[in-house]
Amino acid sequence: MTIDIENLPIAPVRAPTAIAWDVEFATPAMALLVGYDKDWVELPLHKHVNGQLIIALSGAVMCHVPGSIWIVPAGCAVWVPAGLRHRSPASPHSRTCILFVKQDAACLPHHCCTLEITPLVREIALRLVGSTVGSDADEHELLLMKVLLTELEGMATGGLRLPVSSHPKMVAIQEELMANPGDRTTLAEWAGRTATSERTLGRLVFRETGMTFGRWRQQLHLLVALSKLSDGLPVQQVSDALGYESATSFITMFKKALGTTPSRYFDRTGASPRKVSE
Predict the structure, then answer these.
(1) What share of the chain has pLDDT > 70, as a percent?
(2) Between residues 10 and 63, which one has the greater pLDDT?
(3) Which keywords does this chain's UniProt record carry (predicted)?
(4) Shortest CA distance to 56 belongs to which of 81, 35, 82, 40?
């Protein structure tokens, strides 16, 4: 039986603090259902004393950690280990299930990564929402937590990661392309803007990201596309925003990179965005 998130207690997010999230709990894990309204204020870089699994139920989340940006479209999750500085901007009106996990409760990665979330994991996490705050869990809830954490230990890791750099020239390019992803400025033109040669800039991009400029920009496009598609934007509108000549060329790029079309991608992940229209 699928749990209806509309009937679960939602913690609205407007201007949170890092301390507000570090709630004391006596159990191995604690789950919260979080809703982001249109007036929410993003929490700056912060860290937690417990590990944090962010499951995107609708909309999308981008998790920023030093050196990387991870996209968390609906139906997926990102794992942030205890003590890692991060920030997690979410699209307006999105819903996430945040599972806090004590450091010694499970053998989960010591680095940030995405985990493939199965329907079982999603439903157990939602079942635990609100049940462990302020009091110890009963025997049944402890058993559910054990099953959930065991399942998480076996989840495949991976997902869409965008390497980012703190080098001033790279920061300038990153900020411009995140703000205007449809910008088709060539590497040679970027070299002129940043007062360097095309060859030198190409080497810098590869050294900082492990990718060529073209491959890195395509990865950025995929992150932006998944975020917009998760928020219900039609494929044509996303294609236009990314500067593609047609929706067909965008879908071709998407399928080549992820192995499937946008609509089938969300069907596969079990996501629940507003319907993806192709």
Answers:
(1) 81
(2) 63
(3) DNA-binding, Repressor, Transcription, Transcription regulation
(4) 35
Alpha carbon distance 204, 200 (integer Å): 6
122 by Cβ neighbours in 10 Å (0-12 / 13-18 / 19+) ranks as buried
Q: What angle do CA 80, 86, 92 make, to 5 degrees?
A: 95
pLDDT digits (tens, 9 = 90+) for 248-261: 999 999 988 888 88
pTM of the model: 0.78
Taking residues 80-87, report their average pLDDT: 91
CB of 250 within 8 A of CB of 207?
no
Level-2 CATH architecture, domain 166-269 = Orthogonal Bundle (1.10)
Side-chain half-sphere CA neighbours of 210 within 13 A? 7
- Domain 5-158 belongs in CATH node 3.40.50.970: no
How far is Cα 49 from Cα 159, in angstroms, rounded to an integer? 25
Q: Contact at 8 Å (CB) between 254 and 261? A: yes
From CA 73, how far away is CA 91, in angstroms rounded? 10
The CA distance from 79 to 85, in Å, is 12
Is pLDDT larger for residue 252 or for residue 275?
252
